[in-house]
Amino acid sequence: MDDQTPSNALQRLASAGRAHHQARSVTLQKGMRLALGRVADSVLDLPMAMIGAVVQNVDADALGDVFNDDALLMLLDGPARARGAAMFDQALVGGIIQQQTLGQVRADDGTARRMTRTDAAMCAPLIDNLLDAVAPTLDVAEERMLIEGFRFGTRAEDTRGMMLALEATEYCVLRLTVDVAQGTRQGEIVLVFPRPDVDAHGHDDDLLDPDEAAPPAPQMADAIMGVETRLEMVVCEIEMSLEAVRGMRPGDVLPMPPRSFPQVKMTTATGRVVGRGTVGHVDGVRAVKPIRKPNYASQPMRRESDAKELDLPKVELPERSAAPVPDLPAVVGTAIPEPDALMDLSDAPEVSASLGADAQVLDIGDAAASPAGPVDIDLPDLDDLPDLADLPDLADLPELAPIKAAG
Predict the structure, then answer these.
(1) Which of 135, 152, 153 is nearest to 144 (CA)?
(2) How many CB atoms lie within 10 A of CB 33?
(3) Could you report the per-residue pLDDT of 370-396, keeping only the tens digit for each?
(4) 117-134 helix and 28-44 helix, angle to the nearest 10 degrees
(5) How would you class 77 by CB atoms within 10 Å of its CB: exposed for 0-12, middle for 13-18, buried for 19 or more?
(6) Quick one: DSSP state of residue 342?
């Protein structure tokens, strides 16, 4: 009889309605399952399906157990400078790279390799498009706020660097098991999102004092610059045979190349040269002063405002005394004298020339200036020309070809 009471009937109806609503609502796991295959096909042209999904809350102290240094580690940038993380295992990364380069996915042979920035750049579109596609479909507001606005940021070198960049106190870890290329490979995607601290900040904007400025959010650069690193100072490099090295004993002295000290090379633990320096003393201990390239070597300073930052001597030009300029006669604007004002040459002596006794002077008068044209002038007769009959015969000359007229 108790099962037929109105209260029990209402509870059964409410439970059935709640179960039906939950079955139709889109949760974080369901949204990832629906969007992953569609996004992978449109972005990578790669068949991909989600096999399983696990969601768990993890404290920041236990977050290091989630990551694996052999996988591809990536940082995500979110709203309000929040930081999340993503991890793709090597099987999944290898399948994406093969699809992008070879056009097909091959079975995983288990060979491990070091992840690079190129791997992260080729996997970044899948992360961005997946998060953009899932966030609007979620029915739970808390889950939608959890992933909304996050995008690929950069690749992390290792787990330690990842932990230094993640500063929240609690995280939501979403672990997806995916099938790649219809069973050819099976990989794993791990997405880590910081959970908002509701107890500390709440959701009511009226509780915030508008006159009180919000504290500046911590910068990722501050966390990176605070990481301790190890640099090795290489004084010189000496080539030796293996036999000589095996024969070395404590106290042996190695000759240094000339002019190698005090200059040293600054290298990382992997041997990559990051700079050079000079060995010296500071407070009684050995120290190395890095040699920095001057700014003007890469950024020339040519403006007048840059002179304050340059350590240049001050050069003053000597003062020049103003020498007197001599007076010059005015040339421009001087009038040309009229012909009547020219010098009178009437008193100049006459000049004559002797032409000889037989010379005859021809008086042509005004013939040259006559406008009527040519004038008949009586010229003396010329003597008869001599007879040219004794010229030699030119019959031996070769015949010349006739010249054709042009055109």
Answers:
(1) 135
(2) 19
(3) 555 555 666 667 666 666 666 666 666
(4) 130
(5) middle
(6) S
pLDDT digits (tens, 9 = 90+) for 263-306: 888 888 778 888 888 888 777 787 888 887 766 556 666 676 66
**Do you find a cis peptide bond into 262, omega within 30 degrees of 0?**
yes
Q: Would you say 157 and 183 are in contact if contact means Cβ atoms under 8 Å apart?
A: no
pTM of the model: 0.48
- Here the tokens at position 194 are 């910081």
User: Quick one: average pLDDT of 85-114?
Assistant: 91
**Using CA atoms, how far apart are residues 324 and 118, in angstroms rounded to an integer?**
76
In a 3-state reduction of DSSP, which class is residue 71?
coil
Measured CA to CA, the distance from residue 355 to residue 343 in angstroms comes to 31
**In contact, 174 and 50? CB cutoff 8 Å:** no
Contact 73, 142 (CB under 8 A): no
Contact 164, 223 (CB under 8 A): yes
- Full set of structural domains in the chain with CATH: 13-198 (3.40.1550.10), 229-237+259-289 (no CATH)
Omega before residue 218 within 30° of 0, cis: no
Least confident of 148-162, 182-196, 267-281, 325-339: 325-339
Tokens matching residue 11? 């509870």
Confirm if 172 and 101 have CB atoms less than 8 A apart.
no
Q: Return the structure tokens found at 17.
A: 């309605």
